[in-house]
Structure formats: structure tokens, C-alpha cells
Amino acid sequence: MNTNRPPMNTWFWTGCRAESAPNLTNRGVFAVCEGGKHMSFVTTQPEALSAAAANLTGIGSGMAAQNAAAAAPTTGVVPAAADEVSALTAAQFAAHAQMYQAVSAQAAAIHEMFVNTLGTSAGSYAATEAANAIAAG
């Protein structure tokens, strides 16, 4: 095993120098390479991304289960009395509950896309790191 090799998430560029980037971002470091082009340093931890995706999947599943459990009682509010005001109030509660369920479904879809992207990115970073390790020998 080569103990002199830097961590796989450390990137090197020939002919580049690192500089701080207060004028480009709030904080960070970038490399200035040949021709004055800027190149960002990117470090990732694919294992942490995968763990976060798994955590977020569990959170999303829990939220979906709770929203599903709340759907029937909140959308099926029965009027408190037989008068017109009670009927309108119950209808308003049911309408708000239906709107909540619609917004919640959209949020769940966005959450699922985010989790899928995070998991896919973790796999992509891991594959790239493995390919770089093989190429570096």
C-alpha cells in the first residue's frame, strides 16, 4: 500500500496555484491555472453523501406516512352542527386539508428527486474517485 499518496478527494493541477476567492464567493479557495483560468477545488465524501441520502429517505418515508394518516381525518371534517355556518366551516377545513395534501405531494416529489440526485451523485463521485485512484496507480 502506498502511504505517500494523498487522500483520493484531494485534487492536483499542474501549473496551478491556490488563491483565496473573497471576490468570487463568500469564502473558498480556487486555483489559477494556465491562461489565468479559474478552477474550483471540489472535495467530497461519497460515503457521507450516501448516508445523508439514506437518512433523508427515512425522513421522507416518515413524512409521507404521517401525511397519509392525516388525510382522512382532516379532509373529512364533519360539521359541528346542522346549521349553515358549521357546514361552511367544515367545508373550509376540508378545502384547506385538500390543499395541504396537494402541496405535501409536490413537496414529497421534490424531496424524492433531491434524494435520488444526492444518491446518484454519491455513486458518481465514488466511481470517479475509484477511476482516479486506478489512473494514479
In a nutshell, what does this entry contain?
The protein has two helices and three strands; from the N terminus they run E-E-E-H-H.
CATH homologous superfamily heading of the largest domain: HP0062-like domain
Please count the helical segments. Answer: 2
Care to count the β-strands?
3
The percent of residues in helical segments reads 55-70%
Shape verdict: elongated
Structural class, please? mainly alpha
> So what's the CATH class of the largest domain?
Mainly Alpha
In the CATH classification, which architecture of the largest domain applies? Answer: Orthogonal Bundle
Poorly predicted runs are 5-16, 18-28
Number of domains: 2
Determine the CATH topology of the largest domain. Answer: Helix Hairpins
Give an overview in words:
Helices cover 61% and strands 8% of the residues. By secondary structure, the protein is mainly α. The chain folds into two domains: 1-43, no CATH class; 46-136, HP0062-like domain (Helix Hairpins), CATH 1.10.287. Strands 1-2-3 form a three-stranded antiparallel sheet, with no helix packed on it. A hairpin with a 5-residue loop joins strand 2 and strand 3 (38-40). The longest helix is centred in the C-terminal third of the chain and has 53 residues, at 84-136. It is elongated, with a radius of gyration of 26 Å.
